[in-house]
Amino acid sequence: MKISTFSIILLCFFQSTRAILDPIDFLALQSIRRSLHDVPGSKFFSSWDFTDDPCNFAGVYCATDKVIALSLGESRAGSPGLTGKIDTAIGKLSSLVDLTVSPGRIYGHLPQSISQLKNLRFLGISRNFISGEIPAGLGQLRNVRTIDLSYNQLAGTIPPSIGKLPELKNLILRHNRLAGSVPSFASARNLNRLDLKHNTLTGSLAPDSLPSSLQYLTLSWNQLTGPVDRVLYRLNRLNYLDLSLNRFTGSIPAQLFSFPLTNLQLERNQLCGPVEPFNEVTIQTVDLSFNKFSGGISPLLATVQNLYLNNNAFTGEVPGSFVERLLAAHIQILYLQHNYLTGIVINPTAEIPLSSSLCLQYNCMVPPVQMTCPSKAGYQKIRPAKECNKYH
After folding, report:
1. DSSP string, 77-101
2. CA distances, 64 to each of 3, 19, 68, 97, 154 (Å)
3. Signal peptide: which range, if any (predicted)?
4. Model-level pTM greater than 0.85?
5. CA–CA gap between residue 217 and residue 261 (Å, rounded)
6. 358: CATH
7. Of 52, 238, 300, 322, which residue is 20 to 30 A from 153 by alpha carbon distance?
8. Phi and psi at residue 308, in whole multiples of 5°?
9. What's the total number of domains in the chain?
């Protein structure tokens, strides 16, 4: 992970006014060094000679006599990183604006003392082995804009205080072991990115729990339940939404398809009802598979490049607009298998472009000869009549 742009600007401004490092910061760096070590193959600490000016150390950036940015570990991709624990002395670096720890083998708890860094704007400690709970004191970092603690072993709940940080723009906690409910982020009115993917979060989302400022939201791979229509209705700035692999129920609002989304992933939930956009859908990828959606397939979805509607309860014929766009190679993936569809009008001599995939397996119809289905679609071509009779 690279140091933030804000810190680089500060470094350029203050580099000509550097003074002798503040003794408190000097001692804090010594404690941090004693608790961390290079993994074999890493040479990060080779420049950390305390007989020299610490502001010349790798990863240490100063303004006058204070450390304003600390980047622990090599920033290059694939570097072996550091091991050990983050010392509580980190909280003594009172002017720290940017704290970054590169991927490595750092373990132990996140020090409570980080909450003392009142000027901190960027906190990035991802892809290590940090365990324990997220300190509730992080909610005191009133200036922090980004918190990235992803790909660690953090457990416990997400402190509600984090959801009230006024300047927070990015919260990335994916791939941990966090449990409990999603706290309210209604007060975090600058929040653009919320990534809680791949934890064990439970409970439902209150209608006003997420701010309308969100542009990127992923809650996938959790155990969340309840309806989402009233939550999603307000998030009209979203350009990425992934709620897949949860247990969400109820319908989805038609307005959702008019948001400036590039990806809409709602697969593997228990969502139901019709799917009825207001206008032609310009989202590149829409995945509604493995739910309980029903009714006819809207022709307004024919403008989607990658469309997954498989494993639902859709009925009726496939609209002709899908056939036209498929044959023109405007649709790359059209998965409609495992529904209750009754027909598709396509010329038997028409050739589906090699760049396109159509699957209509296991519906209430004889599928076209030309199909490219995933192996998980099974080998049974047509749904048994007794199952089709339930919907027709």
Report:
1. TT---EEE---GGGGG-TT--EEEE
2. 19, 5, 9, 14, 36
3. 1-19
4. yes
5. 11
6. 3.80.10.10
7. 238
8. -115, 105
9. 1
